[in-house]
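Box 3.1. Reading complex inputs
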Amino acid sequence: DTGVSQNPRHKITKRGQNVTFRCDPISEHNRLYWYRQTLGQGPEFLTYFQNEAQLEKSRLLSDRFSAERPKGSFSTLEIQRTEQGDSAMYLCASSPRGGAWSTYEQYFGPGTRLTVT
Amino acid sequence: KQEVTQIPAALSVPEGENLVLNCSFTDSAIYNLQWFRQDPGKGLTSLLLIQSSQREQTSGRLNASLDKSSGRSTLYIAASQPGDSATYLCAALNSGYSTLTFGKGTMLLVSP
């Protein structure tokens, strides 16, 4: 399977605990994105990496959130001191290297559903 | 700040009908527009991508159009089937190639 993969698929945690999610992009894609989706809403952009560099962060990404992509391959998203408002689906996407003819099409993974109790 | 609106929020049709889903965006400086399908509790599946220089794209029973100047896109589904039941999302990619801004989606139910 050469699609975007995310682990775990589901995570239930208690308020105040830390959680970490992993995203493995399509192997030849150098761009990686994180989005958050709450019930009844469209996904909202959180952050974007080109290779290992984090180039853009949304104001939604509070200081309790941190994302890394240490070797320009997989990425992790950590949420510290989780709150009930963090309950959502966290989606990862990747896209190929940019260029004059690139469509920058984003391919999404299955998501990690977080429930904070 | 880009805002994307989708109308209607929900749509219920009998099998076989042709239907149109609407998407509007406030900032016409987009690089492309993507239409996605999302089944309950699942990730997003890309259906069609229209570059800003294009007017439409077709895939099977799906046809998407883009009018950048008016800030509108439509997704046309021909001969709808129960398997088409899902939420359809449109998203505009900013000119910096980084951020997709999504609408809230149209929830489609096709009954046999």
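In summary: The longest strand of chain B covers residues 30-38.
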